[in-house]
From TrEMBL, chain A:
Protein name listed in UniProt: Binding-protein-dependent transport systems inner membrane component
Residue ranges of every copy of the ABC transmembrane type-1 domain listed in the record: 66-274
Superkingdom to which the source organism belongs: Bacteria
Pfam families the UniProt entry points to: BPD_transp_1 (PF00528)
GO biological process: transmembrane transport
Gene3D superfamilies: MetI-like
Entry-linked CDD domains: TM_PBP2
GO annotation, cellular component aspect: plasma membrane
Family that this chain belongs to: Belongs to the binding-protein-dependent transport system permease family. CysTW subfamily.
Keywords: Cell membrane, Membrane, Transmembrane, Transmembrane helix, Transport
InterPro entries: MetI-like (IPR000515), MetI-like_sf (IPR035906)
From TrEMBL, chain B:
Domain of life: Bacteria
Descriptive protein name: Spermidine/putrescine import ATP-binding protein PotA
Entry GO MF terms: ABC-type polyamine transporter activity; ATP binding; ATP hydrolysis activity
Substrates-to-products reaction catalysed: ATP + H2O + polyamine-[polyamine-binding protein]Side 1 = ADP + phosphate + polyamineSide 2 + [polyamine-binding protein]Side 1
Taxonomic classification: Bacteria, Pseudomonadati, Pseudomonadota, Alphaproteobacteria, Hyphomicrobiales
Any Pfam family: TOBE_2
Species of origin: Mesorhizobium prunaredense
GO BP field: putrescine transport
EC number(s) stated in the UniProt entry for this protein: 7.6.2.11
Amino acid sequence: MNSYRPSRSSLLMAPALAWLTALMVVPCALVLALAFFRRGIYGGIEYSFTLENFGLVLDPLYAGIFLNSARIAGTATLIAVVIGYAAAYAIAAAPRRWQPVFLFFAVLPFWSNYLIRTYAWIVLLNREGLITQLLRWFGYTGEPPSMLYTEGAVIAGLVYNYLPFVILACYAPLSRLNPELAEASRDLGASAMTTFRRVILPLTVPGIAAGAVFVFVLSIGNFVTPALLGGGRFQMIGNLVYDQFLTANDWPFGAALAMALIAIMLLVLTAQALAADRAAGRIAQAKGGADD
Amino acid sequence: MSEPRTLLAIDKVSKNFGRVTAVDGISLDIRENEFFALLGPSGCGKTTLLRMLAGFETPNHGRILLDGRDIAKTPPNRRPVNLMFQSYALFPHMSVRANVSYGLEMERLPAKEIRSRVDAILATTELVAFADRKPEQLSGGQKQRVALARALVKRPRLLLLDEPLGALDKKLRGAMQLELKRLQHEVGITFVIVTHDQEESLVMADRMAVLRDGKLLQCDTPHAVYERPADRFVADFIGVMNFVPGKAAADGVLAANGARISGTVPAILSPGAAAVASVRPERIRLFPPPETANRVAGIVEALAYHGLDLQLHVRTALSQKPFLVRVTADAADRRPVASGDAVELGWDAADVRIFAD
């Protein structure tokens, strides 16, 4: 029998493993453990086992917030995928030497801090913000539109922040696609639209899926954007967890909510990984011919 | 025999990309049911011309008439022309059957007819056993047959093939050359093949066009192009040729060393103009009979045995490069030669072609 003997080079993994164990696995385990205890009468924790916290997660009030978060994250994902795919398509179709330049501009927002980028949206959407001023400049005299602290503002913020991920994820398979495949489809009698639907789209689905999962997972657990752009009126799970730990002082229930959120994320990620595995063969094929 | 009908007329077609002229005023007629080859070195414009026939490029000038109708601006999905891509461009997410059916689905034919036509072409191309496989599970030769089946099943007026045998190894290529020719006969479709391999076009084509720098140099049968090349470039590009540079005289070329190579001088060459006399290696005889018009002494520098024949490099006073001479195995057996031997070469005036230099 072959027993696994760690080679010397696997020692190189040790710092990363130690880091992840200390700062990721252990804290998660602690939060998981916390979810099975009771809340003390004056806050704090009473160390007796219970499943009540998980029962409470399924309460219509909180389950509704889960569903609402999923809906907001889903809408943001859909919009980000449509805009991001179109942008990635345009970049991949541009002359080779310009593509890195366009990609650079696509990821440029990442150079500033997430919080600052989100605050910038407040400046834009404010009642007397840039958009209102722009409307006035064009001759609009009515009431300033209320855009900030709406669900639309939250979705706009999420789309804006995660769009670069979608562009990068979709650009990869699009740029590797052999352009002769689209030409072959046209040659065989397909319109441009049919060519997109039957050849280009199916071969780039893995990129779309990767980008979409990214946006969805990061959006559903997000709490900064709904807090700043939703003004606390549009609660998402992230805000609920935050409130349980810092306002309501109900750590065990907060932990149960966090665990439920992590479970949803893992489910989505696993589904995507399984689908990507099945599609891996297609991508390897689609590359052919482009490099000679 | 009736005069063959013109299927495709390329009429003074030009195409430039920015300041680069890829195709420069080419006119060609391609006939019904013909196997036609576009031949030339890379960058000669043959691929651009092919892409204009397929509809992926639009000419800047000129017309492309298919059955008398100008299709120069018709998009690729609306012309009865199909292209077999050099990379084959098989759809990797579809089975062999789905790849072949695709073009017929685009014509919105009834499912039953699609099925029977796909079955028939899979049988013709010997792909029935692979119908459910994905392209990644096929060998190079099988992929090539799928690409061919996918184009042929559409029953195009014209099938374009871009370097169809380029990706195959040498032995398979030889077999596929004959296979393509047999298929073309069987389906009765006009084939236009693009190739940089002069041997390939000699073997397969009914007629061939030789292109260089976007211009058409010669368009004729392989035999005519080989035996009566239009100019020095064609003579050099097709097959192997020995050249003797010199000056045009009344009935031949005067070489630099004063020797005369007898042959017919084309009318455009005035006496004294720079000219080159040429002769194919297989037309040169070793130890020629005394009445042979052109004779020269030389030293054998190297010999290469090819089984069927023996190829000699013979140094002479006529040219810088040694003469290449092909001697049949039979003749070599009767009178063996070795490296360093002094020999005499001879060839008839009728086998000499003279070009401007």
